[in-house]
Design a protein that fits this description.
385 residues; alpha/beta; D-Maltodextrin-Binding Protein, domain 2; 12-stranded mixed β-sheet; 12 strands; Spermidine/putrescine ABC transporter substrate-binding protein; SBP; signal; TAT_signal
Length: 385
């Protein structure tokens, strides 16, 4: 089921969010913002890899509480970064794991007593978090690595409240013996795919398959169809024409669908694919030259008493050497123009501003006005398939 606050998959959480919103200010606009951020609950699990929540208790005052996506993102973050930071700094990291509840945890906490000091925020979370004043501004003068960020990543979202650090483009996974050799998102509409077992797509972060479909339509530049509400039905029809057989809520769903011969091709995320695909036989993946993807902005949580340390930590995450080491353990896209990727990743991931601009990132300033309707339509397609 698509991540959607009006569907029963998230009924209890949605009702509690709606009640708390109505009690706090009684405005439908804020309720809608909060509900749409809840809608990312299922999808963040796809980016994280598996469902898991952890919050350390009784952390020492000299610890920096850092919220990251659960699952293998957190595992690889801990393996590749925490020890490196702690070897160079006096402040220890208290790592917290979560996803859909991240913004609501901040909202529900006293403004001067946040549940953590630093948080990761994908584009949806970053937009709605800023709308509700959940983040503190970052002083760019304290970010020594700011000028090494590729310009594109600071243009797509205002970095005042969060620095762009890491993310992943969408890639196409396909079965080697299925006579499918995709190169672009348009190939998901080919006769070869139509005659295959079927297609798998993400349903939690429904906007990424929509952007992939728009890119493949070729009627407008890039994913421009997503910014014309008159063309939204055409984009949805494009996905419907793909013949989706697996509406996945996690990477495990996608891999299992391949194992069970339910699908021969899938839209998924590079960071969940590039290393993990080696665990499966007769599968390959192709990164389209033009694609969509997600990017994390790292934010300082309102009310923290560790603002200076939080800025230092975010600056650490932006360092080229740190990102290069991080990439050894986690096949993600990084923002520093001096990133040095492992050989097996460097042909797929952007190392220049020009290459970064081939990735279409969702613009939530626009999508926020259409998210509810699009989510409804996405759920309808899934239910009727």
């Amino acid at each position: 089921m698509a991540a959607d606050p009006q569907r029963d998959a998230d009924t209890e959480e949605t009702e509690s969010v709606l009640e708390s919103t109505t009690e706090s200010d009684g405005t439908a606009a804020t309720s809608r913002r909060r509900l749409l951020s809840v809608a990312a609950t299922g999808g963040a699990a796809a980016l994280a890899g598996c469902a898991e929540t952890f919050a350390g208790e009784d952390a020492a005052e000299d610890q920096l509480r850092v919220m990251v996506w659960s699952g293998n993102y957190a595992d690889r973050f801990e393996e590749g970064l925490v020890s490196q930071w702690e070897a160079e700094h006096d402040v220890e990291i208290d790592l917290r794991r979560g996803w859909g509840e991240v913004l609501e945890d901040i909202r529900n906490a006293p403004e001067d007593d946040p549940p953590f000091d630093v948080t990761v925020a994908e584009g949806n979370f970053y937009y709605y978090g800023r709308q509700d004043d959940l983040f503190e501004p970052i002083d760019v003068d304290n970010i020594s690595n700011y000028n090494e960020i590729m310009d594109f990543f600071t243009e797509i979202r205002d970095p005042e409240y969060g620095m762009p650090v890491d993310g992943a483009p969408c890639t196409i996974i396909h079965r080697d013996d299925a006579e499918i050799d995709p190169e672009t998102w348009a190939d998901l509409s080919s006769d070869a795919v139509d005659e295959s077992a079927g297609v798998g797509i993400d349903t939690g972060f429904w906007w990424y398959p929509m952007y992939a479909a728009a890119i493949g339509m070729d009627d407008e530049d890039g994913a421009s169809e997503m910014y014309d509400d008159a063309l939204h039905d055409d984009v949805l029809q494009q996905i419907e024409d793909w013949g989706v057989e697996e509406w996945a809520a996690s990477g495990e769903d996608i891999w299992q669908a391949f194992e069970n011969d339910i699908i021969d091709i899938a839209q998924w995320y590079y960071d969940q694919t590039a290393f993990d695909i080696d665990d499966y036989e007769d599968l390959s993946h192709t990164m389209p030259e033009q694609t969509t993807g997600w990017m994390n902005n790292w934010c300082i949580v309102r009310g923290t008493e560790m603002h200076d340390e939080a800025e230092q930590f975010i600056d650490f995450l932006l360092d080229a050497d740190v990102q290069s080491e991080w990439a050894q353990n986690h096949p993600m896209m990084f923002s520093n123009e001096h990133i040095d990727y492992p050989a097996e990743l460097e042909d797929d991931l952007p190392t220049t501003d020009e290459e970064a601009r081939t990735i279409e990132f969702p613009d939530w300033e626009y999508l926020s006005e259409h998210g509810s309707d699009l989510s409804d339509e996405f759920s309808r397609m899934q239910q009727e398939s």
